[in-house]
Amino acid sequence: MKNTFLNIFISFLILMVLSLILFPKEVLEAARGGINLWLFTITPSLLPFFIGSELLLQLGVVHFLGTFLEPIMRPLFNVPGSGSFAMAIGYTSGYPVGAQVISRLWEENLCTTEEAERLMSFCNNSGPLFMLGAVAIGMFGSSKAGYIIMASNYLAAITTGLLFRLYKKNFYKKLPSTKNLLNTAIKKMYYTREQNKKSLSTILSEAVFKSTNTIIMIGGYVILFSVVIEFLKLYKILDFLSYFISPIFILLGFDKSLIPALLSGFLEITVGSNLISQVSAPLEQKVVLVSAIIAWGGISIHGQVLGVIAKTKIKYLPYFIAKTIQFFLAALYSYCLLSVIRIQEENAISHVFNPYTYKNPWDLFQFSLVIFIIITLTILLFAIAIKQYLQQH
Known about the structure:
Elements: H1 2-22, H2 24-58, H3 61-68, H4 70-77, H5 83-92, H6 97-107, H7 113-120, H8 128-140, H9 143-163, H10 181-195, H11 200-234, H12 237-252, H13 259-267, H14 269-278, H15 283-296, H16 298-308, H17 317-338, H18 361-392
Helix pairs in contact: 2-6, 2-11, 2-18, 3-10, 5-6, 6-7, 8-9, 9-15, 9-17, 11-16, 12-13, 13-14, 14-15, 15-17
């Protein structure tokens, strides 16, 4: 089986090399599009989260959350309290920041391999900036569509997390007493800071270095799959696959013209979502499919996740199964929401505007940075309030 897969992969590489020679213009345009997407969209929107989460980890804030939220996260998801940090970042930043945070928790021994795999099942998701801004307003011209997509994705992720609490279930130790829990959590945070002998400048430099390496790795995957999608179009492979999938779409009552766009979304969600939004089909059907492929993440995101967890013992298969479950759950949740909420395209020329383009990378960076600062300040103010409470009592 392994040799068969290797032979298929080698054949695919040979075909790609030949295609680079046969279609140089198309490849250049696809690669240029991938570079624009990475450099002017992904980098400014994700880099603040990468750097900030690394700093919070080094400064002991995650250790505080791990101790304080253990009584909540353990019964619900069978993960340590530190998983709450991965959950908060994973739900507000976007792919693949959640996976990056979880891998760092594993490296810092804040969770076991099994716990990291449970966290991966529901803490690596698309962010609201993409779902509300790029997809809902930029592509569909409907803010209601964005809220439905976001709600269905988060509900699917939480449901999957509850299901995966049974994955390699272990009988966890007795939960810590809540009587002195706040004091214990704060002491844990300060103890972690004291144990870290690195200077603030060293911590900042390492955070920037690690985050930059991750961003470069993500860029490679984005450019690669932008070219791969172009090859699939040139060789009519998407049309060929559409022929076999069309009976399922007819059975479900979906427009067959959505199939090529959906298949593109299985590879890269930004490209797929944009193609789905441009198809002349009922808006409700398009929202259901976009919700599903965003929950799935696309092979490009899966490749990025593989790159993030490559140096850990975290297995990829549980993540793949979890995202497949989320694919169907997100479609189901969005279908149910659309049965009670009516939506319509509010802007007939919505495809002209897309905040996920090279035109406004600085705005993306600012918006992403503001979101992370709000999260960070909330956590820090919470810690300060707890400290004041302990001093008074």
